[in-house]
Predict the structure.
Amino acid sequence: MISIQDHLEICRFDRSDIQGLIDLSESVGWDYDRREIDTVLASGAIFGHKNVTGTIVSSAAIITYDSYIASIGMVIVNPNYRGIGLAKEVTKRCMDLTAQHTKVMLISTDEGKPLYERLEFKTVDFVHKYISNKYVPLKIANAENITIENVEERDLEEIIQLDAAAFGDQRGQFLMTRINQAEQSLVARNEQGEKVGFGLSILGSENLSIGPIVAADSITAIRLIHELARLHKGNLRIDVPANTIDHIKESLQQSGFKKVRTPELMINNADQMPQRNGQLYAIAAQIFG
């Protein structure tokens, strides 16, 4: 156990710290990779502690979106440095970066929940985490004559608006960075050529993560998920909000997904979730809310 008297410097990390953050992630069995951390740095800020040798021993990230929502994630403390208040200090540093009116959300681990409650976060929802080690393609009817195509630059503005209505805030900078990172970026159009949904997949070190998925209805959401997943031969992951899970749960299970966790979504500076239109079928990742 490290003594509270040991010198630990809190600082804001940059791209030169990415390998140290990967090492910290691996120390607790998490799978942040270079591209994911790069997206976090481009979309927000990461703070943490370094010890006297310059080794990163804690972290927390804050992503501030365009209006009044921020998301905290990547709260990690090296097992040898736990119990001396590092997680609280670095999480508060993230919160201090936000404006007074900002609603700050996070998706909690069981271990982190007591800390977040002390920081006045409240549980307002849940997220359903599903994993598949072998995708089983489904036959999906296309009753609405929806067309699925690759995202092009001309689609970005409408995608940002679709996402804002589903997520509860505009997050243009994040979405543009995420699309650049994506393995696939797809948009759904109806017969009139109107955009009625989009979806991204992100290839990580352990899984192909599917999300965000925004769609006007569950059939379109399932088709987007299928198109993103069908060619991948490894593990898949998708995190589904509680209010839409019942609409796609059966299809996920039939295609080989199994639920592994239902973490709590907590919020500070508010009593309920931001207003959403019910069209968010998968979140981007737990760090991004």
